[in-house]
Amino acid sequence: xxxxxxxxxxxVIVDTNPVWWGKQCQRSQALLTQxxxxxxxxxxxxxxxxxxxxxAVIASHTNQSKFLFPKQELSVQSSQLDKDxxxxxxEEESNDSLxxxxxxxxxxxxxxxxxxxxxxxxxxxxxxxxxxxNMILNGEQNKPMYLETMIAGALSMALCYIHRFExxxxxxxxxxxRILVIKAAADSASQYLPFMNAVFTAQKLNxxxxxxTLEKDSTLLQQAxxxxxxxxxxxxxxxxxxxxxxxxxxxxADVRVKLVLPPKGQVDYRAACFCHRNLIDIGYVCxxxxxxxxxxxxxCSTCHATFKIVGLPAKSKKRRQVLK
Length: 324
What we know:
By secondary structure, the chain is an alpha/beta fold. Helices cover 38% and strands 15% of the residues. The strands form three sheets. Strands 3-2-1-4-5-6 form a six-stranded mixed β-sheet, with helices on both faces. A two-stranded antiparallel sheet has the order 7-8. A two-stranded antiparallel ribbon has the order 9-10. The longest helix has 20 residues, at 119-138. The N and C termini lie far apart (90 Å).
C-alpha cells in the first residue's frame, strides 16, 4: 500500500456459469462450493491486512450479474409475508444442504457460527452464501439458459461501483482500486466490444484488472491484464485455488515488485471481427468507425458507410521508338 493511500478496494468477479460448473461436478473435478470457500478465505485475508480495506463481490451468471457483497438493501414493508413468500423461504431453508450447510434453528446456527469469529468476516461469509443461493435457486425460473458468461456486464458494474466509491470517500483520501476476475467458462467473442470498452475505461481510471482462469486460457483477460498492468494466471489445478490466490493476487501493486511472481507469458492481441465474432489475424478495417471485418463488404454494417471498389490501374502502353 502506498504512502498517500488510505486503503485498498478489491472487487472480486466470480464466474458462476451453471453449465460449466455442472460439467465439472459430473467429472468430480471442481465443485462450486469448494472454490467458493477458497474465495471467501481470500476475501477475509484481504480485509485482515488492514482495517481500512474494502471489499465487493460480484457474481457473473449466464443471464445477469449481481452483487453478492455488499448486500443490496431492499425496502421492507411492515406487512407480514404472504403464503408464497413463506413457502419460498421454507424451500430455501430445505435446500441449504446444496451449499454444505445443516438446517438448524436460526438462533443456534447464528450462535454456533459466530463463536470466536470476527463480526465483519462472519458477515462476508454469510452474505456471499445467502446471495448466491438466492440467485441460483430463484434466478433461473422462467429465464433462458445461455452458455456464455456475462463477464463484460460484471466488469462494467465493478467499474461503476469503484467510481461511486471513490466519489463518496474522496474526503477520506485515495484508495488503491483493483478488480480480480475469476473465470471458469470459455471466452465469448460476442462480448469483445463491450469487454474492451470496459478495459480501456479501467485503464483511464487507473484500475488494475487481475485475471485468474480455472480451465482454459482467456484471450480477453490476457489483454485486459496486460493493458491495465494486472496479473494473468491460469491455475493448473482448481483444487489449489486458495494457494494461488494468496500467493499471487493478495498483495497490492506496490508490494508485488518485491515478490517473486510467475513470469508474464505472450499476450494474444488478435481482434474479433464484427461480422462473425471470430478472432482473426488479417482483416478489413472501416476507415470511418474502425470496425473490423474478416471479409470485404462494400457497405459497413456498423456505420453504413459505402466504399467504392477501385480496380487495378490500367497498364500504359509503351511507345516503341522508331529507329531511323
